[in-house]
Amino acid sequence: MDILTLPSTLENHIARLRSEEDLQAGLMIMLQDGQTVVRLFSELMANEGRSVIVGERELLFVRNLNDVNIKKYKTTLEKFKKGLLPIQVKLRGLLMIVQANIESSREKTQNSKRVLNQKRDRFKCVVELVQNAEKTIAGYETAASNYECKADNLEKSSNKHIGRSVAHAGIGVFSAVLAVGVGVALAPFSGGASLVVGGIVAGSSVTGNTIALGINVAEAVKYREKAQRARNNADSARCERSKLRDEMNSLLTEINPLQMIIEEAKLQKKNLEALSMFLNRCDESILVLLQNVQDVDSICEKVFWQTNTLSIAKRADMRYTGKYEHGMTVLTEFKGKWRTLTNAVSILPIADVQRNRDRVFALGLYP
Asked: Residue 350, SS3?
């Protein structure tokens, strides 16, 4: 990942995570530090970095030590090293912030997964509850209908027994009256014996039908009680059905919000996972960039000390002509180290050094 693209890419991630305020705070600090690093690199490469590139081209035309402006090269190296220092400090700070955000993002992602799974489980549970409620309600409705039908049949049976009781009661009274009437009519001829017989017959008739009447009434009452129990059961079934329907309606109102929450959780999880991947790439890229900067700084330090050797060789060459070959060897080494420095600078991802290098060499530009 190019450090130049860090701020803009990070801004996109921040915009997609507006609900994560604490995470956003850490990302904003990272954004500010990233922008500072980009600015420092851009300024360094536009000025001291360009001087390093131009210095390489100038050395191509140097034929002897007298043509080397050692002071100028020292100044370029000093400025370049000075510019690298705050960049290294900022990169280390940025690396710490990135790693802290990676940990925070990892926790948020895990939490997002838990929330998503919880909401999915709840949604599944609600759907199952609704489906079961619908089946149970249908069962209650069938039970209520069956109980009502049974109650109606029991009512009919009760009414039938009541009718029989009335019929039996009527026959018994008629028989008793008839028996007594006959007894009374024959009493003068039988010396009262007919009254006794009529009374006995009448008594027997009334007693037998009274027993039949009691049996039929008892059966009627029994059926009436069963019918009432059946209707009570039907009312209970309707009551349970009503309660369950209310619960089901409440569950149904939960489904749509749950679906929305699930979709939001899925999007949040996706955004957090994308952020985690981005932060991991940042971590790797910044580590590589920091190592490259440290390598450049180390090479710059070596080249700087090489200028001291170059100064000594230059003074010796000026005084003793016999030292000319030694001086040229030192100059060749200096050119090689400077080229190494330029190559190291060209590795830095934010510095389009190679293109500037080609342009400088093609046009012969000088600072």
From this structure: coil
Distance from C-alpha of 73 to C-alpha of 51, rounded to nearest angstrom: 9
End-to-end, the C-alpha distance of the chain in Å comes to 30
b/e sequence 254-272, b meaning 16+ C-beta within 10 Å: eeeebeebbeebeebbebb
Per the CB < 8 A criterion, the answer to whether 16 and 90 are in contact is no
Q: How confident is the model at residue 44 (pLDDT cuts 50, 70, 90)?
A: confident
> What is the DSSP-derived secondary structure letter of residue 356?
H
Helices vs. strands in the chain: H and E counts, helices first: 7, 0
146, two tokens: 């069956």
Handedness of CA 185, 191, 194, 200 (dihedral sign): positive
The band of 7, judged by pLDDT with boundaries at 50, 70 and 90, is confident
Query: SS3 of 116, please?
Result: helix
Structure pTM?
A: 0.60
Largest CA-CA distance found in the chain, in angstroms, rounded: 192
303 vs 43, 73, 337, CA distance in Å?
A: 22, 9, 6
Q: To the nearest whole number, what is the mean pLDDT of the chain?
A: 75
Q: Which residues contact 258 (CB under 8 A, 6 or more apart)?
A: 119, 122, 123, 126
Q: Which amino acid is at 61?
A: F
Burial 31-49 (b: 16+ CB within 10 A, else e): bebbebbbebbeebbeebb
How many Å apart are CA 31 and CA 20, to the nearest integer?
Answer: 16
Grade residue 65 by pLDDT with cuts at 50, 70 and 90. Answer: confident
CB neighbour list of residue 110: distance below 8 Å, 6 or more residues apart: none
Residue 353 vs residues 41, 50, 62, 76, 349: alpha-carbon distances, Å: 12, 8, 22, 16, 9
- How far apart (Å, rounded) are the C-alpha atoms in residues 212 and 71? 140
Contact 314, 73 (CB under 8 A): no
Sequence-distant (≥ 6) Cβ neighbours of residue 61 within 8 angstroms: 67
Residue type, 325: E
Per the CB < 8 A criterion, the answer to whether 328 and 22 are in contact is no
